[in-house]
Design brief:
Elements (H helix, E strand, L loop, with lengths): L1 H10 L7 H10 L2 E4 L2 E4 L2 E2 L7 H11 L2 H15 L11 H5 L7 E4 L2 H9 L11 H16 L13 E4 L5 H18 L1
Parallel strand pairs: 4-5
Antiparallel strand pairs: 1-2, 2-3
């Protein structure tokens, strides 16, 4: 959601430091995020929001308290009472602190950079793993140190280090956690 709002604000020529205007975009936007697609105000931005420029723009937007208030409310409404998977840097700590299953996925910065370098949306960085790792580390530092909803692992989240793991292996670990939670319910 933060990436889509950042994209829409940039698309409209809004200064990302103008908290009120960016919060208005967040409040007024028609947002859809389903089955791997992200659409904002009729624009499919699924790929457009996964660029280095949008990484930086989303980090700036995520620091804005009024934008966070609007999007946290939208995320909670989207979650409703149903079963769903939601990812984000404050989902388990702020958005859905009472979720039955919380997972904190992590990987070594070099691993994350290699994965990102393989993403065609980041081709502008020329696959420079070192530059990508630096950008990711900088974003993490910024998100961990923001005053509103900082990036942190929820105390009751299961930590999974995905370094060297195939996606399928990570999915199986998460499914095991979900099945265990359902068995307890």
């Amino acid at each position: 959601m933060y990436r889509a709002v950042a994209w829409r604000a940039v698309d409209r020529g809004i200064d990302l430091d103008d908290e009120g205007s960016v919060a208005d975009v967040a409040r007024d936007a028609q947002l859809e995020a389903e089955q791997g697609r992200v659409v904002i105000d009729g624009h499919d931005v699924t790929r457009a929001i996964r660029t280095p420029e949008m990484d930086a723009a989303a980090a700036r937007v995520a620091r804005l308290e009024r934008v966070r208030e609007v999007l946290v409310e939208r995320q909670r409404a989207y979650a409703g009472d149903g079963d769903l998977v939601m990812e984000g840097r404050d989902i388990g700590t702020v958005v859905l602190p009472n979720a039955h299953v919380k997972v904190y996925l992590d990987a070594h910065p070099d691993e994350r950079a290699r994965r990102r370098a393989g993403d065609t949306a980041h081709a502008a960085q020329g696959g420079d793993v070192s530059a990508i790792a630096t950008a990711l580390t900088s974003r993490d530092h910024s998100d961990r140190n923001r005053t509103v909803s900082p990036l942190t692992q929820a105390a009751d989240a299961t930590y999974i280090d995905t370094t060297g793991l195939a996606i399928e292996d990570v999915v199986l670990q998460v499914l095991d956690l979900v099945q265990a939670a359902r068995a307890r319910a």
